[in-house]
# Entry
Amino acid sequence: MKLTILLGDKADSEPFAESLAPDVTQPSQNGKSVSTIEAYDTVGDKADSEPFAESRTPDVTQTNQNVEKSFGNEVAHNSDSKSIAENPTPDVTQPNQNEEMFCDNEIVHNPKQSIDDTVSDKSDSKSTTESGHDSEQSIDDTRTHRGIPTLGVKQPSQKYFHIEDTFCKEKRKLIPNYDRMRVLDQHALKAPKRLKNSPKDLVSYLLKPAKNDLERYRLLFRWEAQNVDYDVEGYYSGNYGDNSPEGVLKNGKSVCEGYGGLYKYLCELAGLECVKLSGASKGGDYKPGDVFPIIDGKVKTDHAWNKIKIDGEWYLCDCTWAAGAVGFDKDCGENKYTRCWNEYYFLSDPEMFTSKHFPIDENGNVSAIDQLLKKPFLDLNKWSDVATTDCAYYAYEVETLSHSDGVIETDSNQTSIRIRSPYSIDIWANLSALNGIGQSPRKGQDFEDHVMSYREGDILHFDIRLPRKGRYCVDIGGKPNFADDEVIEMRNSILTYTISGSGEKQDIGFPSGMGNRCWGADTDFTSAGFRVHGLRVPIIRSNAGKVSITVSLPGRRTPLLCKLRHHTESGSEQLQGHFCGEKKGRKARLTLLLPYEGEYRFTIMARLKKNSESFWEGANYLICNTHPLTVEETFPDCDHLWGPNEHFFKMGLHVAGLAVVTVENGDHCLTVRKGSDIDLTCNIERNGTKMPSCIFADSHFNGEEVNFRMRLPEAGFYKFTLYAKKKNQAGSYPGAGQWLIDCKSAWAGELYPDDRGLWGPSDIFFDLGMKAANLSTSLVITEDGQCSLSFSVPDKIVVTGRLERNGVNQDTSLLPEVAIDGTSVTYHMRFREEGLHVFTLFAKKRRKEGSFL
# Structure
C-alpha cells in the first residue's frame, strides 16, 4: 500500500488554510479566484444568469439590418423601399421579472433572483424563465420595414396540417374528410391495365364504388393522372403525336391537350358534365417577364385544362399538373418527366388556379367567366406582370409584403423579398441564372449561397446578392413544420420572381454551407426546448470583434457543439480556439472571438434525433464584423461547452463553481464530490502541453471528495480535464468534463511535485483495514517546521515510511514511533527547509514475501 501526503510550511501553504474548497463564484478577498473575466455587453437576454453578467465581451450591436450593406434602388412594385438599416426592427423580447434588467448598458440586478452554483444530477423544476417562454409583444403597428407599412410581427401558429387543411373552402365543403378519397384512389390505382383497350369497360370498372358525382369525377381523374405520362419529347420538338382520347389511351402519353381531351371523354362516357378549356399559363419554362405571343391579334394558347360541374357549381381541374412535373435532369442533361400526385389541381382554389391559368375563348379573347372569380383578370399583361404565385402560397395563406411585380430590377445587384404566413413553415429559396426563352435548360447555374432565407416571427425574409449583373430566377418554397406526411410531400412552391441586376459589382454571396436552408433556429431545435435569446433575426453585427450569445437549454445535462467559420473569397475557414461556451444551470453563454473583418457563419449543434448520439445543426447565424479583434492568445481548442459533460452526471458527480474561471494570482481549487466507488484522475494543459506539476489532486480520506488544487506558472489559458470511472472497471478513464482557467498572473511560488494520480490513501490502504488518526485530506500544513502523522495499523500488517523533497530522500528527518501494542504508528518529522515535502507510507502483511505496496 502506498499513502502519499503533501506537506508544506505555513507560509507556502497559507492559501489552503482558510478553505479546502474556496467558492469560486465569489471574488476572493485575497486575490485568488474570481468567477468571471470582466464585464461586457452581450447579444440576447443579458440577465439570463447572474454569473454570466460579469463575463466579458465588447460592445455588440444587433439590428435587423440586411447583412452588411443597404440595398440599392429597386424598380418594382415598391421601388421607393428603404434599406433595412434605416429601420432596425426592435427586440420584442421583454425582460422577465425574475431576470436582470439592463438600462443604458448597465446591469440592474433583480434582488428576487437566486443563484445556485452547484451542478449536480438532481432533477430541476423548470421556471418560466428557464424554459424559455418569456412574454413577447408585437411591434407597434405604425412601424415600417424597408419603407413598407406592416401590421406588426407576430409569432406564427404551430398548427398541425392535415391534407384537408390545404383545401379551399369550396373543396373542404365537398370533401370534409379525405379518408373517402383515399379509398377511391386505391380502387382507381388498382384498375387492370388491359381496360385501357376498352374505354367503356374502364369507366364501368372505375365507377363501381362511386356514390355520387364527386366520387365519379375523382375516380376518373385519379386513374388518368396515374396512367398517362407527359410527352416531354413531343412538347419540346413540337411533334405532339396523336392527342385524341383513343391515341392517348393507346400510347399512354400526351401533352396537356390530350390530358384535357381524355378527361372530357371519360366524363362524357360516365354521363358527367366536363368542359375542356385552353389558354395561357405560367407553367413549363415560363418565368416572370416572359411575353406571351400574340398571332393575328389572338393570344397563342399553350395549355389545356378542364372545368366540371358538381351540384350545379363549376370547379376547376388540371390533370396534367396533378399527374406530375417536368424538370431538367442535370445528370442526363435533358428535361425529364416525374410522376408525382398533386392534390391541389383537383377541385382547385379558383384564385390559386387563375394565378397560373389565363383562359382564352375560341375567338382569342379572355374568358373571364372561366376563371370562376368574383373579380377576374381582364388584361393579359396585368396578369402576366404579377409575381408567379403557386399552390403553397394559397394553402398556407401567404401574403406578399415587398414585391408584387414578377420582375425585380436592381442597380446594386442586391434585393430583399419579404412575405408573411400566419403558420410555422420551413422555407427555402433557389437562385439560378436565367437563360433566354427557348434555351434548354431555361434555368442555368445555381447560386445557392447567394440567398439568405430567415424568419422574423410570421415574416419570411429572402435577402439576395446577385453574383454579377444579369437576369436570374428565384424560386421560393415552403412546407409546414407540423403536418402529415402526405402534406409534406405535396407541391411546395410558393412564389417565383425574375431579378434583373444592372450593377457592375460582383459578390461572393453569403457564408457557404447553408445550401437553400433557412438561417436562424431550426424548428427541431426550438421544439426540443432550445431557445436563443434576444435574436429575432439571425443577423448579428459586431463593431468590437467579440460576440456573446445566450442559449436556453432543455436541461442541465444538455450538451452543445459549436462551429465558427470565416467567409472569404477563397472559401470558408473554420476557426479553432475562437469559441468559448460555458453553462450555468439551463443556460449557456457562447463567446466568439472574431479575428477578421467580414462575415462569419456560427453554427450551434445539438442532439435533435431520438435514439441518436449524433449532433445535428440546430441554428445558424450570420455575424458581420467591422473591427478585427487582436488577441494575444485564443481559447484552448474546444467545440463543446466547458464544464461537466453527460458522463459526469452518469457517474453521480457533483461540482461547485463555474466552468470558466478567472484566476488572479495563479492559484485555484476545483472541488468534486463523488461516490466512494468512483475513481477520478485528471490532467491540465496549456497550449496543448500537459503540465502535471501544476495540479495537486487532494483526496479526502472519506473517499467522497477531491480538491484539484492548481498552481499556474504563467499567465494565459489552461484546460483542465476530469476523467472518471467505476472502481475495478477495466479500460481507460472516459472524460467527465473540461474547465477553462484564465490565469491573469502567474503563481510566484513553488509548484507541486510531479505526480499524475490522486494524492492520499489508495484502495489498498482501506483494504488492509488501516486508518489515519489525525488526517482528513492529503494536504498537511506544518507548524514551526515539524509535524506528526499517526496511523492505526491492524495486526499482521507492517508499514514503513519515506520523506522526500524535490525527489531527494529526507529520511534523516523522519522518526517513526510504534505503539507498545503494535496497533498504531506515528511518524514525527522535522523539516530543514521551507517548501513542499512528500510523505509516502508503504505497507504489507507480515511474513509475506515481496516488496511493500
User: Anything to note?
Assistant: The radius of gyration is 37 Å. The CA atoms of residues 241 and 691 lie 82 Å apart. The chain has a mean pLDDT of 82. The first helix runs from residue 10 to 13.
